[in-house]
């Protein structure tokens, strides 16, 4: 027994000594990195003999710090916004117009960049939601009830009406594609729609379209909206897919429609998306085919994307500017958004009397002809508004969780 006890003490002593040695090693490495970093910041003429000796002694650290600097420079360059000069921009749009004319099955992939003209911030731009969160800055709440489909949304709708666009795959949750008049069968909202809540207890899943943001009480892995299904009394949930989640709803995600469209596509036009998320969905890029049999790829974005090297054409410009010139080249008139014709008003499900105070988000204002019938049903609850669950909160919660895990 005494021998076992001594063995146990010995093992604990060795473990503590090992842990202490690791701590000392990490501290030594930290000091070495600090020293070498300070020397490298000096110009060569300012370095002393002792500095040169330290650089020679710690060559591995010098190489690691140089690699880190290269990575930082590359990342900074990827985040920069570039604009094509006027002549090159015009020539590229003409090339895109010809591709649209010749396409047999054109699919459009859209990201946050097509909604910035509606005063909805993007995500990875210099002032984007995730860029700000990465820098530790707060993201202000945006009132999306005032947002309307942009020129780009209306161009896409018209191109579909002219049978020049067959399907739209969107990462946006703002519902603006639907509000532009684009038919639902031609739309896949891969990350959900902020105006739609569903009852998954019903079979098939029952859908409720609302005139307000249903995500104010939801977040990552927490999707209950606080309302109940009028048919089975089951809890309603939002349709948003956050980072770390897998979207399984048939609608509005419509993965089946997206995959089938990609399979048939001969041209893919990416508008305002960084493609850092979309690139992970292999079925959208026909990666199971040889490179020469994949759809031709056209990208409109101000920043670098991971698909740039595979693109037939990359246009550095704002989506509205590109689409305005594209429609001019195609000789197609751009329709103006008319709130009176917004399909969300005819598709929306009215709240029950006991639900009129179940949300605090501002309702989308109906056109003048409908104001008299809805002016007494604002549904606004007293007190401060709750931040919407889809706009940045899922990202920030995921980052906090990751930091705790480390």
Describe the structure.
The protein has two domains: 62 residues, no CATH class; 315 residues, Rossmann fold. α4 crosses α9. Helix content is 38%, strand content 10%. It is α/β, with parallel strands linked by helices. β6 and β7 form a beta hairpin. The C terminus is likely disordered. The strands form two sheets. The chain has a six-stranded parallel sheet with strand order 3-2-1-8-9-10, with helices on both faces. Strands 5-4-7-6 form a four-stranded antiparallel sheet, with no helix packed on it.
Describe the structure concisely for a colleague.
The chain is built from twelve helices and ten strands. With 406 residues, it is of the alpha/beta class. It has two domains: 16-77, no CATH class; 86-400, Rossmann fold (3-Layer(aba) Sandwich).
Which geometry do the CA atoms define? globular
- Write down the Rg: 27 Å
Tell me the domain tally.
2
Strand fraction? 5-15%
* Average of the residue pLDDT scores: 83
N-to-C SSE string, H for helix and E for strand: HHHHEHHEHEEEEEHEEEHHHH
Name given to the CATH homologous superfamily of the largest domain: TPP-binding domain
Report helical residue fraction.
25-40%
In whole angstroms, the N-to-C terminal distance is: 40 Å
Give the key terms.
metal ion binding, four-stranded antiparallel beta sheet, transferase, 406 residues, 2 domains, zinc, 10 strands, Rossmann fold
